From TrEMBL:
PANTHER family in the record: SLR0650 PROTEIN (PTHR35458:SF8), SLR0755 PROTEIN (PTHR35458)
MF term (GO), any: RNA nuclease activity
Domain NYN: 16-164
Protein name (Swiss-Prot/TrEMBL): Uncharacterized conserved protein, LabA/DUF88 family
Length: 172
């Protein structure tokens, strides 16, 4: 008799994953719900991995002149994250643009043939089309986010949805 639990365990451990974290989305979601807390990216990565094989973990940041994020980027790298950053753009009318939606989508599609699961750490509903595309290509897509700040269509499109709770936060 085959122990199905051991089979699932072995399949799980052989699963290759790539993790894409929308840092701005997670920062503002955490701030909105838990004003005195920040996401602990070391705990987040450990929680998401679950003994699976990490192919890549990329954290996407938008930087401003006023805030020095060098310490944060240093810690992310020490925890196993690659860091992609770009400056916040200020338009002539004074409005700002600073998101990584296209960058995350391009990177996720580019790596999708090399992994079994793509993990998206964001609640942004703009990623619904990406999730649907990756699933159509045969890739499992997990979404990890604060449920209260996550678009219903993103939750519905994911292969699996995992709400983030206070256990992966750290106090300021």
């Amino acid at each position: 008799m085959v122990n199905s639990h051991n089979n699932e365990h072995n399949i799980f451990e052989s699963q290759r994953i790539a993790v894409f974290a929308d840092v701005q989305n997670m920062f503002y979601s955490a701030k909105n719900i838990y004003s005195d807390s920040r996401v602990d990216y070391e705990k987040l990565l450990a929680t998401v991995l679950k003994r699976r094989q990490l192919v890549r973990a990329i954290a996407y940041l938008v930087e401003t002149e006023e805030i020095d994020q060098s310490g944060f980027k240093y810690h992310l790298r020490n925890f196993g994250w690659e860091v992609r950053s770009k400056q916040l753009k200020i338009r002539p009318d004074g409005s700002t643009k600073g998101d990584w939606d296209m960058g995350i989508a391009i990177d996720a599609i580019a790596i999708s043939e090399k992994v079994d699961t793509v993990v998206l750490v964001s609640g942004d509903g703009d990623f619904t089309a990406l999730v649907n595309h990756l699933k159509a290509c045969g890739v499992r897509v997990e979404v990890h986010s604060f449920e209260r700040n996550t678009a219903a269509e993103l939750i519905g499109s994911a292969t699996e949805y995992y709400p983030i709770d206070e256990s992966i936060l750290r106090r300021k």
